Amino acid sequence: LRRHRCWIQWSETPVRPATRFDLGGQTLLALSLFALTAGLNAVAGRQGSPFSMAGLSGAGLLFFILFIFHEKRASEPLMDPELMRNRAFVWANGARLAMQFSYMGFLFLICLFMQNIVLFSPTRSGILLLWITLTMAGLSPLSGALMDKIGVRIPLVTAFSMAAAGYAGISTIGISARMEILIPCFLAIGA
User: Fold this and answer.
1) How far, in Å, CA of 152 to CA of 159, rounded?
2) Burial level of 148, CB count in 10 A (0-12/13-18/19+)?
3) Contact 42, 60 (CB under 8 A)
4) Contacts of 182 (CB under 8 A, 6+ apart)
5) Hey, which of 8, 39, 116, 165 has its CA 20 to 30 A from 110?
6) DSSP 147
7) Is residue 143 within 8 Å of 190, Cβ to Cβ?
């Protein structure tokens, strides 16, 4: 009887009606990302003429501008354009984007460094990088709960500061990189 009464009192969230998929917005965004990526790859590989590199990058920016105009007029946009008026949303996502760029660049370069300069095996390099992954996996639930209690500012600033300290520590290592230096730096980056 209690279960039945709880079910009546706490009904589930109402189901939203089926929404249309914004195929136009999805296509414009995909074309934008493809053209920008192809332009950046052409620049990095020095393939093709400078005009083709600029053309691809320009086409990517044009598709992105068209995507923005399309999303403003769409009845069910991929992303609500009103979110861009929220300064906290824009700054938080900008900071996260910068952090991800630095993290992905770091992973690529540290793998090359450990294998080609320090002469670690690929297996040893991968196992060392697991410290970052394990730290992220272990602290993610805790940081989410902490952000619910005290807000996002202090945990984010702390996490970015610890990552910066880890990157600074990694920048000081040389050919004779030791585990005692690498592991604490990786833990700081993962936090």
Assistant:
1) 11
2) exposed
3) no
4) 128, 170, 173
5) 39
6) H
7) no
- The dihedral formed by the CA atoms of 1, 15, 93 and 158, expressed in degrees to the nearest 10: 0
Kindly give the confidence (pLDDT) of every residue in the chain, 191 residues in length, as a single tens digit, with 9 standing for 90 and above.
455 444 455 555 555 565 677 888 899 999 998 988 888 777 766 666 777 778 888 898 999 999 988 888 888 888 777 888 888 888 888 888 888 888 888 888 888 888 888 888 999 888 888 988 898 888 888 888 888 888 878 888 888 899 889 989 888 887 877 878 888 888 998 88
Contact 49, 42 (CB under 8 A): no
Q: The whole model's pTM is what?
A: 0.60
Under a CB-based contact definition with an 8 Å cutoff, are residues 66 and 28 in contact? yes
